[in-house]
Amino acid sequence: MNSVVLIGRLTRDPEIRYTGEQMAVASFSVAIDRPQRNDREKQTDFPRITVFGKQAENCEKYLKKGRLVGIEGRLQTGSYTNKEGQKVYTTDVVANRVEFLEWGDRNEPRSNKGSKEEGVPEGFQAIDDDEIPF
User: CATH homologous superfamily for 4-131?
Assistant: First the structure.
């Protein structure tokens, strides 16, 4: 079984590139705080995330540094030889699903204030918290 579920904040804007078959590939990293113990300092992990296809294009369009996201995917390990000739081992999360827990166009300021329709993607409808039945 190889399954990963994460919630964290982006540490940088997603970077997108296209493969030879013109498939979008987005990559970014997220900051995830570890549960804090009384006798230790706060610790944070920074896993790298890779997303493919239309979902990668949506990540590039709507996510930016600081936004909260949920990631569901799998771990993938690899290696490469760096410029100094040393073998470097990598561990990445390949996302099957990315949930945008904070919305907005990347060009918009990160703010929940303002108009009711601000940050709502095309095809979705904004609702007030008072309209939610639970």
Answer: Nucleic acid-binding proteins (2.40.50.140)
